[in-house]
């Protein structure tokens, strides 16, 4: 069996794998924008007032902006929301050498919640929070389209995992809604 995500168990069935919303993902990384603005301003100021070369400052600011856009795209394309028949995971590859993984076994999940702020309401997205039995164990999926459907789907899987584990093989793969259909 070819794993469909890094770290997938041989006896594990992938039920859902998707990205968070790019706008929500980018807003969560706002600190990078602030760092970019500070660095761009510093490069521009140093090049203009010390070296009297305005074009050097602009080129430096553009290079930093391009690096930030590349980094954001790289991190976005390597961040996944994953639901299997055994666990819920958030996989994040934040750089070439650093991976992060948050996971909860289905039988250890206490609650699934949907949180929405004004941006989520405007763009039709929600944040899914999966809480474990331990207060420190939780997984967040920000900016998820059809969040209510996914939470209902996840709740059914959790119920089956806890009460009828022999029926987990009957759970169907989640299909995204298109035009009101599944």
Draw up the topology in text.
Layout: E1 14-18, H1 22-28, H2 30-50, H3 54-77, E2 79-84, E3 87-93, E4 99-105, E5 109-115, H4 118-123, E6 125-132, E7 138-145, H5 147-163
Antiparallel strand pairs: 1-2, 2-3, 3-4, 5-6, 6-7
Describe this structure in words.
With 182 residues, the protein is α+β, with helices and mostly antiparallel strands. It has 5 helices and 7 strands. It has helices at residues 22-28, 30-50, 54-77, 118-123, 147-163, and strands at residues 14-18, 79-84, 87-93, 99-105, 109-115, 125-132, 138-145. The strands form 2 sheets. It has a 4-stranded antiparallel β-sheet with strand order 1-2-3-4. A 3-stranded antiparallel β-sheet has the order 5-6-7. The chain is elongated and about 75 Å long. The two termini are 27 Å apart.
Keywords:
182 residues; alpha+beta; four-stranded antiparallel β-sheet; three-stranded antiparallel β-sheet; disordered C terminus
- Written as H for each helix and E for each strand, in order along the chain, the element string is EHHHEEEEHEEH
N- to C-terminal distance: 27 Å
- The helix/strand class is alpha+beta
Major beta sheet, specifics? 4 strands, antiparallel
Low-pLDDT parts are: 178-182
The total strand number stands at 7
Side by side, the strands of the main sheet go 1-2-3-4
Mean pLDDT: 81
* Alpha carbon gyration radius: 21 Å
Helix content: 40-55%
Percent in strands: 25-35%
Instruction: Give the number of helices.
Output: 5
Using the alpha-carbon principal axes, give the shape: elongated
Task: Report the oligomer.
Answer: single chain
């Amino acid at each position: 069996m070819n794993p469909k995500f890094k770290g997938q168990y041989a006896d594990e069935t992938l039920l859902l794998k998707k990205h968070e919303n790019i706008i929500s993902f980018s807003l969560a990384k706002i600190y990078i924008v602030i760092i970019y603005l500070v660095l761009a301003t510093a490069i521009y100021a140093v090049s203009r007032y010390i070296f009297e070369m305005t074009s050097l400052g602009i080129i430096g600011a553009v290079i930093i902006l391009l690096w930030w856009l590349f980094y954001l795209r790289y991190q976005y394309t390597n961040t996944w929301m994953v639901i299997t028949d055994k666990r819920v995971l958030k996989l994040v590859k934040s750089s070439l050498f650093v991976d992060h993984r948050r996971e909860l076994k289905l039988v250890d999940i206490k609650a699934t919640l949907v949180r929405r702020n004004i941006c989520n309401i405007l763009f039709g997205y929600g944040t899914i929070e999966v809480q474990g039995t331990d207060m420190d164990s939780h997984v967040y999926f920000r900016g998820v389209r059809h969040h209510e459907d996914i939470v209902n789907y996840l709740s059914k899987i959790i119920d089956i995992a806890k009460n009828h584990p022999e029926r987990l093989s009957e759970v169907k793969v989640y299909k995204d809604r298109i035009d009101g259909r599944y």
